[in-house]
Design brief:
236 residues; mainly beta; Elongation Factor Tu (Ef-tu), domain 3; YaeB-like fold; 2 domains; 6-stranded antiparallel barrel; 4-stranded mixed β-sheet; 3 helices; 8% helix; globular
Length: 236
């Protein structure tokens, strides 16, 4: 058996997140997040998508393309455990793995047949940064993929952690109504690393053409400013 395999990039996703900071930690946590999947010319073949329209959800297999290191560690510090407790890498979804592969289940909203880009998949609930490479797509099949009785491990007790988002009127008017609800849902997920708990620290999130700055005290997030995104890196 060969020990090395070549994986081809078949597509890239285009989302509202130009940076890693602020992206929900799992797919489906913010259902209103929309994204498009555009395929490489080699895979822009309508026949390859025949029957996919009959599925409501799909699996995306993708690459952690923005990893800052190539090495991996047998244990990692999961953010939801405060960043101080180590767990085995195979018990987490951390990006620094032997093979930097991600797996996300997203809702398939529509398949568009574009005259230039060929088949374009419109999805929602994605937890991927803009430009992330997609290696494969498979249909989500409920009778084999869904296990409601499954144990949730160490992440279960933290699944309902949310922040209350407060946006003063002066900044609310700068957020288009079309993105307010999903922006607030993203912020409510608590974007900061769990080991950071400085109420005076200002964080910056780039989202859908805006740069939003905020503070967090206890379980309340307060937006401090909203400006057009100038392309600067978020303060993570």
């Amino acid at each position: 058996m060969p020990s090395d395999y070549t994986i081809k990039t078949i597509a890239h996703i285009h989302s509202e997140f130009p940076d890693k900071f602020g992206i929900p930690r799992q797919s489906g946590l913010v259902a209103d997040l929309r994204a498009r999947i555009l395929f490489e010319p080699e895979y822009q073949i309508a026949e390859a998508f025949k029957g996919l329209e009959d599925f409501s959800h799909i699996w995306l297999i993708w690459g952690f393309s923005e990893n800052l290191r190539n090495s991996w560690s047998p244990s990692v510090r999961p953010p939801r455990l405060g960043g101080n407790i180590r767990m085995g890498v195979f018990a987490t979804r951390a990006p620094f793995r032997p093979n930097p592969l991600g797996l996300s289940c997203v809702k398939l909203e529509a398949i568009e047949f574009h005259p230039v880009h060929g088949p374009v998949l419109h999805v929602s609930g994605a937890d991927l940064m803009d430009g992330t490479p997609i290696f494969d797509i498979k249909p989500y099949v409920p009778y084999v993929d869904s296990h409601p009785e499954a144990a949730e491990g160490f992440g279960g007790p933290h699944k309902n952690h949310h922040l209350t988002v407060r946006c003063p009127e002066e900044w609310l008017d700068k957020i288009p109504e079309s993105i307010r609800e999903k922006l607030f849902a993203v912020l409510a997920q608590d974007p900061r690393p769990s080991y950071q708990n400085d109420p005076e620290r200002i964080y910056g999130l780039r989202f859908s053409g805006l740069e939003v700055k905020f503070r967090i005290h206890d379980t309340r997030l307060t937006i401090c400013s909203v400006e057009p995104d100038t392309g600067s890196a978020a303060d993570a």
